[in-house]
Amino acid sequence: MTSAAPHSGPSPHSGPSPHSSPFPRADSPAAARRPVVVVGAGPAGLTVGNILRAAGVDCLILETESREFIEQRPRAGVIEEWAVRGLERRGLADALSARAERHSACEFRFEGHGHRFPYAELTGRHHWVYPQPLLVTDLVREYADVRGGEIRFGVRDVRLHDLDSDRPAVSYTDPDSGERRLVHCAFVAGCDGARGASRAALPPRARIARHDYGIGWLALLAEAPPSADCVLFGMHADGFAGHMPRSPGMTRYYLQCPPGDDPDSWSHERVWDALQRRLGAAGRPPLTEGRLLEKRVLDMHNYVVEPMVFGRLFLAGDAAHLVAPIAAKGMNLALHDAFLLGDALVAYLTAGDTAGLDGYSDACLRRVWDYQEFSEWLSEIYHGASCGDPYRSGTTLARLRRLFTSPAAAAAFAEQYLGTADAF
User: What pLDDT, on the 0 to 100 scale, is given for residue 24?
Assistant: First the structure.
């Protein structure tokens, strides 16, 4: 591929110089060539890889972790209906369709009472609960085992080169031989998160907007069946609490805590006492308790990288943006990016159509900022009651009551909660 990059605009050379470490020459046996190199094997990278393979486009996925690790790493679990339909259309949802739980309502608990919000009745749309490790397992199997895609796990010292040229390259250390490998390509899909090689390669002109909420969430995975048939949101003077079903025997819980809090300070008894108190409601049974398999503190923050394209580097997923788990949007945004990027790369590499790549950043960022704004709004709902400010607490309760007294307010919330129903 020798044509000019479809996305115009200068992008300085990013990352370390190829001379700063052992680096194979372009004509050496260690050098290779692929139309696309995908960096990162999360939902975004694997979805892009599968879209390319389905269209007969060769690519290479590089992942620093092992296959076993990414298939077990605990992450998000809520998938919006438009994302499920997009996976189905690409032949990537067979296991999901058979195993995922479909949710039609959520419940807000405040002032000692439970208030069920039946969003499916309002919109005709649903949420699916399917833990990210299961989706990643499905996508890896489809890409590597079914579609014969090339993926290399456990690679080290990944670096991106010459992104502003029409001959970008990616180098890495092979985990088996210890040798440096070089892959020339037409495009790099940067899907390796906030601390990966793609973010390290960004030029100075990249703009990174960040927002810190100033709170933490204690993320818990309990070996206990869900205590309700839906997601529960508890707004309490002591802090927010969340109940998210994951499987018949597992439940994800969240507890608001100080940022940087020590998870070891939360004993089994302290955790369940706080959960029972913050999620308690008249006429509702107590939570079913169980062994805590995971305890970690998440400091709530968001960020957005603008633009999402730098020369031949196209960012997707957490490499481009993070939305705190407040609104359960992260995996959905990653899939949105991947659908757009995969389709755009196929259109360009098979038919020379540049429209998708040219418009990729703007199309992604419209949804990114929409979800960021909703996260901000929902954070005030979740945390206003415990902020210590009587005024904010009062306005928070007014917003909550409005959801259950105003059809217009309920419809607006349901639309944002479920995500825009784009056709993919």
Answer: 44
